[in-house]
Amino acid sequence: MYIIKKAVIKHKSGLHARVAAMVVQKSYEIKNKYNVPLYLHCPGREKVTASSLMLIVSLRIKVGDIVQVSGEGALAEAAVNEMVGFLESDFQIADFRTFTQVDNLIHENTFTAEQVFSCMANGLVVTDENDIITIFNPAAEKIMGIAAVEAIGNSVCEIIPGSRMHIVNKKMEPELGCRQLIGNSIIVTNRSPIIVNGQSKGVVAIFEDISAMEKTAGELREVKQLKEKLQLVLESVHDGICVLDKDGYITYVNPSYLRIVGEAREDLVNHSIEIISPKGARNKVLNTGEQVLGSISTKQNGVTIVANVNPIVVDGEVDGAVSIVKDVSEVQGLVEKLNRVSARAEYLEQELWRIKRPARAFAKFIGRSGKALDALAVAAKAAEGLATVLIRGESGTGKELVAEGIHCASIRAGGPFIRVNCAAIPATLLESELFGHERGAFTGAIKKKLGKFELAHKGTIFLDEIGEMEKNMQAKLLRVIQEKEIGRVGGEDIFKVDVRIIAATNRNLEEMVAAGEFREDLYYRLNVIPILLPSLRERKEDIPMLIEHFIDKINGEINKEIKGIRQDALEVLLQYRWPGNVRELENIIERAITLTDGKYIESRDLPIYLRENVSSATTLIDHTFSQESILPWEEYEKQIIQMALRKYGSYNAAAKALGLTHKTVAAKAQKYGIEKNILWEKKG
């Protein structure tokens, strides 16, 4: 028989802990008396057994609340009536024995809660309404590194720096899933207020150390990333890849494999190699466990492949195989391509050596033409040693810049670089200038003076215009080169000097030697590494680059903003023969920038003699085609190529205009010694 009845709680404190303990005690008595277990029901809650103290306390039953009591059994009605009567009483304890039993019950349940808290893997901290710690379990001790005896009874703010439990207590709002770092541990904390009758009675904080979980998650991410990268690599490689498991079933093929063998993925993956290729290299490797290299076979699509098959060995046993295949026709194509490339390798290597030069050391020398790069390549190689260098070239070709570059690119770059213009110093003073003099050595020598060779010790001396040196001084210079020692004018002491000599001249030393104007032995001493700098008319393709450099330089010096040069003006400069070389070009650009009122240099800003030179050249070409006498075909071809390059400025553009290939125009230009014009204009 099942009975359920209502009871109205009349005790002013409701079913608090001691009263709940009395209810539990009464439940045990009724069960023993009637053999009927009893249950309590509250509206909106699950029924609870009347013999569980913690469950009854959790119902939070107050005075005036209605509680239903249920029981089932032969004597259920008597048992339920007795419990209803007890619940509606004032819960007075009649004797000391009952009082002791109730206290023991409370103590036993309290002990059970403490055991639960102690066994929790998560940290548990509980504070009261005054933010005083009342519970601090062993897991909290381990995570926080604070003993419970030090924590309990003290303010949570003092024990746990940065704690927010007092804030949760004040605001009565939970904070869930808060991530924080405590020591070296990563912690997730849930903080919840204990609210009774609308008032906060404290806070419960439960926190968990998730460091191991975070580490595992990180490792999983790394494994996933590695898998994705490996998959991308396999999908991207040009070689075909086929993977088999230990039972001989194909588990993976990459796109390249499908392309090479000409089959669909569904016809291969999850199919047995015993059926697909029972006598092939893959099946052999699975059966023997030994790799097979260079296996050649022909597929159904007619493609001949070469394969390397390797066993996958795990713990000493064959766990599968991987095959890497190449299309033999592709390999043959690569070999042919390699042969074609190899045919150019030596040439390209030489070209690379020719154009490779120390960028910083020779940065001041502006030029990218073939002849300029050839000269700079020799200069760069000369910088690696200590041999004497003789730089040849017309005036204004940049001999001093190359000499300075050799010094800066050499192991003597940290030493001095001393310049001497032999043509600018009177012959009577040159010896004193080079070797120094003692006090009183001659009239006007009022104090000792160090010579240029002494000043250049451990460095480099640049003897410019060496061809202007008198033969008497040539003999003395030869002694310095041979003996590596000097003596000051008017002195008796001899000094050892460690100086590298770089000489330069614009004169024909060979003719001077033949005429007896220059010592032959000195010539051979100086001409160890000769460097010939081309004149500007020999490297006209460098003119646009030089113009750009001079515009930038002069703009900064005179505070102007010239943006570039017009095509007509560039045409004039390209036609001129430049007897004064780069120095003359710089002077003309400076003159044009100074005189122009616009943002671009135009032909009208150039000297008249330059413009007249272009008119004369054009007239000469027109005359060639208008004269009645017939010239050889090559002369007309030369003039046509020259006119096209002058107009269009590049081999490609000239070739399109003439209906020829780029290669043909370049070859013809080289044959006739024609240099292309690089027509340019800075865009504003």
TrEMBL record:
The keyword Transcription applies. Gene3D superfamilies: 1.10.8.60, Homeodomain-like, HPr-like, P-loop containing nucleotide triphosphate hydrolases, PAS domain. GO terms for biological process: regulation of DNA-templated transcription. Keywords: Activator, Aromatic hydrocarbons catabolism, ATP-binding, DNA-binding, Nucleotide-binding, Transcription, Transcription regulation, Transferase. SMART domains: AAA, PAS. One of its GO terms (molecular function) is DNA binding. Residues 2-95 form the HPr domain. Residues 109-160, 226-279 form the PAS domain. Residues 365-594 form the Sigma-54 factor interaction domain. The keyword Disulfide bond does not apply. This is HTH-type transcriptional regulatory protein TyrR. The lineage of its organism: Bacteria, Bacillati, Bacillota, Negativicutes, Selenomonadales.
